[in-house]
Write a structure and sequence with these properties.
This protein has 581 residues and is an alpha/beta fold. The chain is built from 14 helices and 26 strands.
Length: 581
């Protein structure tokens, strides 16, 4: 019998509190396991542990997630005394049974052998303060990402060296177009009509560049964008429309004009801010990338020296900065750039200090890979779900993949984190860091199919500015082109806008709330994706990624469709509906 791949750890994402009463338990198993039973009871039910025979009550687990080489069995229990001792009883495909204890797999007879010590799993106590609890408002927020320099410009009296708004000739990484706060305010009604409920801003503070990830002053809105007072008013008006506001925090590195780095450049080791950075060479003030190791910087970019977020003074300074943002601007969320290079201790400190001021503040980490170490409830509330974006993109680009492959990969994305984190995952398909969705999709059909996945799967979806009109653009700088407002206002993109608006409304339907379970209805070698949401299976999605048309059963109210008619779903088509009673 093969026992490899069978595992469980009491804690982390295998055993954790969903809330103050419910405990979620997950078991990792290979495909030879066909049944898993949790055997559990209070550890002291028969007296002090070890002083008398202990055994538990059986609770059958369900197969909750299938992946290419692993299955996950899950169960939710309500320990009446807030603690639980347990082991697993496993049945294999040859009919044999074994027990999984903390230190290994045993014959089931070990449970009755009183002369032997047993290493049972034990969840010691369900402490309220240990519960991972992202703000509830996040899970059903629909985000819209704005790159400030490129969204819209309205005359505000600031004279900058800006390109003409619709002039794409000669655009490069240094081009400035002058998008500003007044421009955003002027289009809040447009965003409201689209249906979004949250705005995420790329950096808005003073810097040298159009992207503003090289911050000069973390307390002053870049004058090219506007003033602090204008940003306060923008947030107020956005809140009045029901929008949440999240801004970018660039604490992994600063710009070279930041006061602390300028002092280091001037005074070297004698600078009181020398330990705010990682300077490794006396001769560090020279041009060129930092591959020579003279000091550490973001991605070897000399203009972005890396901050030491282990330094208590750095931690204190940026904690005060965040407090100022909350108190002055009344923001609802902070997105942390390069979130996995910032120290855990810093984020833990921020979590405690900032949520004293605003308990429902949303802390989002920019991490492109498995982020579980940052998502135990005392650091970030969520992360940008780039694995989700990559899985979806790969499926549509690689025609050799089938529906089963897609299911396994999506399940992997949702297997990395706690259930409550999955509900708040920041799902996206494009951003300022990658090519635009229409370019990656390669066709309007693929564009719509991928957006359908974004808006009908668990998580908090985000679209990049211009995605609602299928704005084109390969990698930087072309994925950051100015919004073509003249064409938008002329109605050129109305059909695409209406499609995306309808999908946003689908996401707002009660059947597609983030907390509703994802259930796969089809798993075969075709490329017809079919899944439902919720325990009743009524909300359904069909996506035909085959190279041929196919018949589908649509027996309910259609919420959205593309290339579907009378039970026939064309290749490249989508239909989303809610089944009748």
């Amino acid at each position: 019998m093969m026992y490899e791949g069978i595992s469980h750890r009491c804690g982390y994402n295998d055993c954790y509190c969903l809330n103050e009463n419910e405990l979620r338990i997950n078991l990792h198993a290979n495909r030879r396991v066909i049944k898993a039973v949790l055997v559990c009871e209070d550890p002291y039910i028969n007296g002090i542990s070890g002083a008398s025979f202990w055994d538990g009550k059986p609770v059958e687990m369900r197969l909750s997630s299938e992946m290419a080489f692993e299955n996950i069995y899950s169960v939710t229990v309500n320990p009446p005394y807030k603690r639980l001792q347990y082991y697993f009883l496993l049945t294999f495909d040859d009919g044999s049974s074994m027990c999984l204890l903390e230190d290994g797999i045993y014959d089931t007879s070990i449970i009755r052998r009183n002369e032997l010590a047993k290493h049972f799993f034990k969840f010691a106590w369900m402490n309220d303060s240990d519960i991972c609890n992202p703000p509830k408002w996040v899970q059903d927020t629909i985000w819209y990402q704005i790159f400030p320099d490129r969204f819209r410009r309205e005359e505000d009296g600031y004279n900058g060296n800006f390109k003409k708004w619709d002039d794409m000739s000669g655009i490069d990484h240094k081009s400035l177009y002058g998008g500003n706060i007044k421009g955003v305010v002027s289009r809040l009604d447009y965003l409201e009509s689209l249906g979004i409920t949250g705005i995420y801003f790329n950096p808005v503070f003073l810097s040298r560049t159009n992207h503003r990830y090289d911050t000069t002053d973390y307390e002053v809105i870049d004058p090219a964008f506007g003033t602090n007072e204008e940003f306060v008013e923008l947030v107020r008006k956005a809140h009045a429309k029901g929008f949440k506001i999240m801004i970018d925090a660039v604490f992994n590195h600063s710009g070279t004009d930041f006061f602390a780095w300028k002092d280091v450049l001037k005074n070297g080791r004698d600078s009181e801010f020398f330990d705010w950075y990682y300077v490794n060479d006396e001769d560090f003030n020279k041009k060129g990338n930092t591959k020579d190791g003279r000091f550490y910087s973001f991605a070897f970019v000399a203009e972005m020296p890396k901050l030491n977020t282990n330094n208590p003074k750095v931690v204190s300074y940026f904690t005060d900065i965040c407090k100022k943002w909350i108190e002055e601007f009344d923001i609802d969320g902070i997105r942390f750039d390069v979130g996995n290079e910032i120290s855990h201790s810093f984020i833990k400190h921020l979590n405690i200090e900032l949520k004293k001021i605003k308990p429902e503040l949303f802390l989002l980490g920019e991490i492109w890979t498995d982020s579980a170490p940052y998502l135990d409830g005392d650091e970030y509330d969520s992360v940008m779900n780039y694995p989700f974006m990559q899985v979806i993109g790969n499926f549509f680009r690689d025609k050799s993949l089938n529906t089963g492959d897609f299911k396994h990969k999506i399940n992997y994305c949702y297997s990395m984190y706690k259930q409550q984190i999955n509900h708040a995952l920041f799902n996206l398909l494009d951003s300022h860091d990658v090519s635009r969705l229409i370019n990656m999709a390669g066709s309007y059909d693929g564009f719509i199919q991928q957006l359908t996945l974004l808006f009908t799967m668990p998580g908090s979806p985000c679209i990049y500015y211009g995605t609602e009109i299928a704005l084109e653009g390969e990698n930087d700088p072309y994925n950051r082109r100015p919004m073509p407002w003249n064409d938008i206002d002329s109605g050129k993109y109305l059909n695409t806008f209406d499609d995306v608006r309808t999908l946003i409304n689908v996401r707002k339907h009660k059947s597609f709330k983030s907390a509703n379970e994802l259930v796969w209805e089809q798993d075969d070698h075709s490329r017809l994706i079919h899944y439902s949401r919720g325990s009743d299976g009524k909300p359904r999605v069909f996506i035909n990624a085959n190279e041929y048309d196919t018949d589908v059963c649509v027996d309910g109210k259609i919420l959205f469709s593309h290339k579907y008619a009378s039970g026939r779903l064309e290749k490249g088509g989508v239909v989303v509906f809610v089944k009748e009673q």
